[in-house]
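To the wet lab folks,

You asked to see what we're planning to order before we commit. Fair enough. Below is the target structure as tokens, and below that is the sequence we designed to fit it. If anything looks off to you, flag it before the synthesis order goes out.
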């Protein structure tokens, strides 16, 4: 319930309400800005506010991951319990991601959104792709880079050559995690007395970074409002006269959104019932109210990495997950556990195949399942990454990467949904792993 301070009349609302209000104001402003053609003002004076908020969140991602992983590992009783937690997390990551792709494939095969796409619209989409990419070529270059990589490239990429190089780019989060894991592990293995000064340093860093999260979250409503306003205004500017093209992709977009909602509100609870210890129906309410603000922030930023600071706060403070579990599962999950992304990649690949009149065999669908799992693991936790990695999925069934042209238009919107699902799954897995841990 909202409470109003009596002395200073300060409005005190729960975080999720503040973020929701920010989102609604952002959408309302964005809509007005499109109607009134305020794009110039929005681009010059509103978008920078959203960008600053995103940067602030990204700014603390690397120190947060290092400090929380190292301090988390240092609290482990022994290496065996670390191993158990690691294996449990990995099994859950893989199980939930595979389930998500299976849902995506199931929906796309059932609804067949690609067969409803008129061939003339398909040609139009392909043409607009070629002309727009001729201008900046960025997406194409990134896709070509991905195209020429082995599917297991993410394993090579997870080991940094230089920690400063890795820490200088948020896209290298997996490398930062590898370093932090090695550091934390070595810290446990050396005599406690020798490790103490370094551990004190990381504990102190951890506390400071969490305070930074608090400070940054105090401007979240404003940041979220600005992000929503600029996303809307950019979407309108990009689709321009091509609204009917967007509408032609409506069934495909609805398939992705429906799949993600099924995943978040039907499959995730089932997974918790099956895997979490002593999970009761009443715990579901606690789970969703704890993670709701993180889901909203994921929706607004389209980045699991940018949401990570808030995910930590929600999971540790509100789900009461032990810091050593959260410190291990959340950074790893934000980087490799992407259920929403893998579901989306499954739907998108089948949609593109259907639009080109290809009938996928059972073994091709199995290949899609496997490569979508791998591609989602390899996707960076930043906006749009899942679409770039779709190239690997398409290649695996012998399709041309240019097929991505068909699904670019609604991607920003779908990214918002899939990122929310990605973050929800990370919270869920930390909760499940925590339920199997004993001691503090
Ligand atoms: N934006 C997603 C995330 O950060 C990744 C994706 O593009 O699917 O989780």
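Sequence we intend to order:
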């Amino acid at each position: 319930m909202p409470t109003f301070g009596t002395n200073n009349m300060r409005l005190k609302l729960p975080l999720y309400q503040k973020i929701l209000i920010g989102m609604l104001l952002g959408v309302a402003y964005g809509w007005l800005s499109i109607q009134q053609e305020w794009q110039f003002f929005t681009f010059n004076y509103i978008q920078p506010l959203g960008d600053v908020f995103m940067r602030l969140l990204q700014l603390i991602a690397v120190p947060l991951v290092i400090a929380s992983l190292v301090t988390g590992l240092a609290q482990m009783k022994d290496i065996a319990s670390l191993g158990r937690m690691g294996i449990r997390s990995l099994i859950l990551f893989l199980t939930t991601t595979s389930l998500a792709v299976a849902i995506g494939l199931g929906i796309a095969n059932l609804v067949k959104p690609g067969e409803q796409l008129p061939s003339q619209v398909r040609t139009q989409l392909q043409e607009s792709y070629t002309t727009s990419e001729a201008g900046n070529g960025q997406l194409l270059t990134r896709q070509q880079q991905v195209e020429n990589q082995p599917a297991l490239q993410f394993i090579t990429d997870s080991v940094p050559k230089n920690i400063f190089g890795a820490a200088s780019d948020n896209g290298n989060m997996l490398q930062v995690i590898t370093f932090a894991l090695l550091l934390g592990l070595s810290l446990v293995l050396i005599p406690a007395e020798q490790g103490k000064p370094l551990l004190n340093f990381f504990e102190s860093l951890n506390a400071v970074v969490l305070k930074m999260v608090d400070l940054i979250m105090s401007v979240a409503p404003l940041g979220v409002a600005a992000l929503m306003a600029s996303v809307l205004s950019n979407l309108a500017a990009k689709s321009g006269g091509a609204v009917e093209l967007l509408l032609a992709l409506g069934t495909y977009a609805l398939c992705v959104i429906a799949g993600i909602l099924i995943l978040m509100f039907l499959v995730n609870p089932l997974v918790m019932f099956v895997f979490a210890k002593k999970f009761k129906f009443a715990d579901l309410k606690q789970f969703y109210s704890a993670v709701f603000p993180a889901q909203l922030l994921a929706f607004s930023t389209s980045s699991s990495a940018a949401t990570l600071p808030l995910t930590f706060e929600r999971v540790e403070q509100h789900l009461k997950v032990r810091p050593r579990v959260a410190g291990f599962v959340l950074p790893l999950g934000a980087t490799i556990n992407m259920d929403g992304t893998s579901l989306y990649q499954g739907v998108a690949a089948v949609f593109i195949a259907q639009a080109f009149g290809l009938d996928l065999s059972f073994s091709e669908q199995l290949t899609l399942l496997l490569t979508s799992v791998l591609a989602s693991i390899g996707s960076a936790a930043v906006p749009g990454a899942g679409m770039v990695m779709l190239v690997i999925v398409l290649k695996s069934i012998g399709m041309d990467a240019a097929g991505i042209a068909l699904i670019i238009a609604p991607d920003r919107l779908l990214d918002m949904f899939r990122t929310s699902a990605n973050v929800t799954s990370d919270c869920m897995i930390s909760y499940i792993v925590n339920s199997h841990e004993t001691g503090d």
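Structural context that might help your review: The beta strands are 3-4, 11-12. Residues 15-59+86-150+227-435 form a domain with the Proton glutamate symport protein fold (CATH 1.10.3860.10).

Thanks,
Computational group
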